[in-house]
Write a structure and sequence with these properties.
5-stranded antiparallel sheet, 6-stranded mixed sheet, 4 helices, alpha+beta, 2 domains
Length: 295
């Protein structure tokens, strides 16, 4: 038991340096990719841009790392108590990312993740006393009002990863970080002129939504326009859907035949989250990504 405690202590001591190295590699690869001419920059969501505050919080059973836009003021309150646990000032003029490491809390990782999410249940598949590996989200979670289809809530963070104490090695491999950056950019890479994919549509083709996409506010039959054809990681189409006023409400990435939804970016009001019609939202959660099995 003593050896396990000593080993965990040593891992936690090394963790700040590992996290800075890991996300330093991620941001470097991501920002380099964003400058490439084959990236469809208009489709890249805001949460992949800008400098971030990378906040690491340890709990009783694991560690949570969340990214926040550095220009935002961050106030983290205890779930149910309202007690302010953490506060960070806005840094609108920051010229680099910031890394902060909070003292350990006597709270489980799932509860810490929900506190970082404004006390919202974000659907982390974590059960008390059961190792879960490393799981999280590569984009801010959203909740859509089931009645109006409007965006009712969006997580304040742009990325969140949660690892149990057997899986802290997740942050020890900068090559993994670079691969994650490439995966995040892949849906926005332009299709090259010589690509001979099997896309059935071309840019500016008008289509009808083949099925309802609740998280995008799109109904079957809604008109859309193909705005880009992608080549990687596999042939795909980016379709823009607009509201009756002509404003973009969602960008949806499909397989070339429109048979499968690959990615959804909801952009009501030209990319600004709408909070109208909050009502009683039903959660629509992004796919969990970068999951590694428990040791």
């Amino acid at each position: 038991m003593g050896n396990e405690s000593d080993n965990l202590y040593a891992q936690l001591q090394a963790l700040p340096g590992q996290i800075e190295g890991f996300y330093g590699a991620y941001f470097s690869a991501l920002r380099k990719g964003l400058t490439q001419p084959n990236v469809f920059s208009e489709a890249v969501p805001d949460f992949l841009r800008g400098y971030k505050r990378v906040l690491t919080v340890a709990g009783t059973d694991g560690v949570v790392v969340a990214h926040f836009p550095i220009e935002w003021e961050i106030i983290v309150s205890g779930k149910g108590s309202g007690e302010v646990l953490l506060r960070f000032s806005s840094e609108p003029d920051a010229g680099r990312d910031a890394y902060d490491f909070a003292a350990p809390f006597e709270l489980p990782a799932r509860e810490l993740a929900e506190s970082l999410s404004g006390e919202e249940d974000i659907g982390l598949q974590i059960s008390a006393g059961v190792p879960w590996g490393a799981i999280g989200f590569s984009s801010p979670q959203q909740k859509i009002d089931a009645t109006t289809g409007e965006l009712a809530w969006q997580a304040p963070w742009t990325r969140l990863i949660c690892a149990d104490y057997n899986s802290l090695h997740y942050w020890g491999d900068p090559k993994r970080a670079e691969a994650e950056a490439r995966e995040d950019l892949d849906p926005y890479v332009r299709r090259s002129e010589h690509q001979t994919g099997a896309a059935a549509y071309e840019e500016l083709d008008e289509i009808e939504a083949p099925e309802r996409i609740e998280e995008a506010g799109v109904e079957a039959g809604d008109p859309g326009v193909v705005v880009e054809v992608f080549e990687r990681p596999r042939p795909a189409l980016l379709v823009e859907y607009a509201d009756p006023a002509g404003r973009t409400k969602a960008l949806v990435t499909y397989s070339p035949d429109l048979g499968r939804v690959l990615d959804v970016l909801r952009t009501p009001g030209r990319g600004r989250p709408s909070r109208e019609g909050a009502g009683r939202p039903e959660p629509v959660l992004a796919a969990q990504v970068y999951a590694t099995p428990a040791a």
